[in-house]
């Protein structure tokens, strides 16, 4: 698998993602917000942080960067696009995923480890797991409260686009949504940080299943 991690001014989880991918022997390029051609990559990661200082709203400035035009082309091509935390916020702002991440129901920055329940075991991001499995993954956000209109929420549920739910609703998200895909299943966003849970030395490597699923999905596509 060939991966790109896009670093925006203010990203702060880009190197976490880089090291997580390297731990799976993935060839990773670190690109910046001026990236214009992403056609060489199986998977493109938009990492967490505070892109452009989170001015106006999280992700609201990043969506205008040249790199996001290239991400849209890649998404249309069916390449995998993965946004973690601020990356999820950028993908919703850019219109690549439905809904919006609002300020947490109890306003404030939450830094914790939370249990995520697998909702869809057939996705590119969970295929080594089973529906109902629980993985513990760090969260670190002030704006993780997922909202959308009722019709879109119903559509997300009906199309099995909800991939993970929080076991307990930590931030007020509708239907305890922690991660969703687009309709085609190749664009994915989640607020929790699997890239921070890949090394047993840190006390938690349950995020590895997420990356193992991605690798299996890319491998499967290459054989098809
Ligand atoms: N860790 C992050 O990516 C933080 C995301 C975002 N800036 C928030 O606080 O919600």
Automatic annotation (TrEMBL):
Name the chain's protein: Phosphoribosylformylglycinamidine synthase subunit PurQ
**Catalysis: reaction(s):** L-glutamine + H2O = L-glutamate + NH4(+); N(2)-formyl-N(1)-(5-phospho-beta-D-ribosyl)glycinamide + L-glutamine + ATP + H2O = 2-formamido-N(1)-(5-O-phospho-beta-D-ribosyl)acetamidine + L-glutamate + ADP + phosphate + H(+)
Task: Using the UniProt record, give the first listed, main subcellular location.
Answer: cytoplasm
* Pathway entry: Purine metabolism; IMP biosynthesis via de novo pathway; 5-amino-1-(5-phospho-D-ribosyl)imidazole from N(2)-formyl-N(1)-(5-phospho-D-ribosyl)glycinamide: step 1/2
Function text:
Part of the phosphoribosylformylglycinamidine synthase complex involved in the purines biosynthetic pathway. Catalyzes the ATP-dependent conversion of formylglycinamide ribonucleotide (FGAR) and glutamine to yield formylglycinamidine ribonucleotide (FGAM) and glutamate. The FGAM synthase complex is composed of three subunits. PurQ produces an ammonia molecule by converting glutamine to glutamate. PurL transfers the ammonia molecule to FGAR to form FGAM in an ATP-dependent manner.
Native source organism of the sequence: Fructobacillus pseudoficulneus
Q: What Enzyme Commission number(s) apply to this enzyme? A: 6.3.5.3, 3.5.1.2
Q: Which residues form the active site?
A: 85 (nucleophile), 193, 195
One biological process term from GO is: 'de novo' IMP biosynthetic process
One Pfam match = GATase_5
Listed GO CC annotations: cytoplasm
Q: Kindly indicate whether the keyword Lipid biosynthesis belongs to this entry.
A: no
Q: How does it assemble?
A: Part of the FGAM synthase complex composed of 1 PurL, 1 PurQ and 2 PurS subunits.
Q: What keywords sit in the KW lines?
A: ATP-binding, Cytoplasm, Glutamine amidotransferase, Hydrolase, Ligase, Nucleotide-binding, Purine biosynthesis
Which molecular function GO terms apply here? ATP binding; glutaminase activity; phosphoribosylformylglycinamidine synthase activity
Query: Subcellular location, in the record's words?
Result: Cytoplasm
